[in-house]
Amino acid sequence: MNMLIDIGNTNLRWTADATWSVGIARHSGAIPLDLLATWEQLAAPERVLVSQVGAASVADALARVTRALWQVTPEFVRVVPGVAGVQIAYEYPERFGVDRWLALIAAYAECQQATLIVDAGSAATFDLLQADGRHLGGLILPGVELMRTSLLLGTQIPRVEYEPTDVIWATDTTTAVAAGSLGAIGALATRLYDRLCAETGSVPRLLLTGGDAERLRPYLDRPYRVQPDLVLRGLSVFCR
């Protein structure tokens, strides 16, 4: 058994690849106590493979925990160009996020089809992959909460904690802010999907992942599939 862990900016996702039951926890810069209690019940994995884009403090805590529980040192995956048939567009691959790279690997391993991957987390990332495994590049926006927070910090608009559903024209300011952040990500996804369709002459897939994937559903107007464990699936391919 291998343990696969995805440390994002906000959440930690994990699975033991023998069962593929995905757990998720908000890490707040450390390993949550309830997660420790769960891991204490597990048999020792042969390997612990980690995708880390979140705080270094989480990675440090994870290393201490895995050594204490199972005498296993975690392997923090780094981007390796050309692995699993995926060719990264970045001139300097080390500047490409490991989570985005693993998502590309998972998408290509599943199906050799032109694909737009939208990862809606603390940041919203968009990556375009051709059917032959060539990465065309990507774009990055602030995520839903970062967009809202940056606007509210610079204005006197009050924050209201509710989620609008498929709002086209907002009729109050707070709804306009909330819906605008979701609509911006959805609109860019549409534009990139149509561009990928035109450039490849085929109908691409749209894969939606990340902690805010469900919130974006009403704002996507192209066919899509939610794949919340895409980075973990990429880790599994990399492990093999």
From TrEMBL:
Keywords: ATP-binding, Coenzyme A biosynthesis, Cytoplasm, Kinase, Metal-binding, Nucleotide-binding, Potassium, Transferase. It catalyses: (R)-pantothenate + ATP = (R)-4'-phosphopantothenate + ADP + H(+). ATP binds at D6, I7, G8, N9, T10, N11, L12, R13, S122. GO terms for molecular function: ATP binding; metal ion binding; pantothenate kinase activity. GO terms for cellular component: cytoplasm. This is Type III pantothenate kinase. It comes from Allochromatium warmingii. InterPro entries: ATPase_NBD (IPR043129), Type_III_PanK (IPR004619). It is found in: Cytoplasm. Coiled coil: none annotated. Catalyzes the phosphorylation of pantothenate (Pan), the first step in CoA biosynthesis. A monovalent cation. Ammonium or potassium. It comes from the Bacteria. Pathway: Cofactor biosynthesis; coenzyme A biosynthesis; CoA from (R)-pantothenate: step 1/5. Its main location: cytoplasm. K(+) binds at D119. The active site is at D99 (proton acceptor). Homodimer. Its EC number is 2.7.1.33. Its cofactor is NH4(+); K(+). Substrate binds at Y90, G97, V98, D99, R100, T173. Belongs to the type III pantothenate kinase family. GO terms for biological process: coenzyme A biosynthetic process.
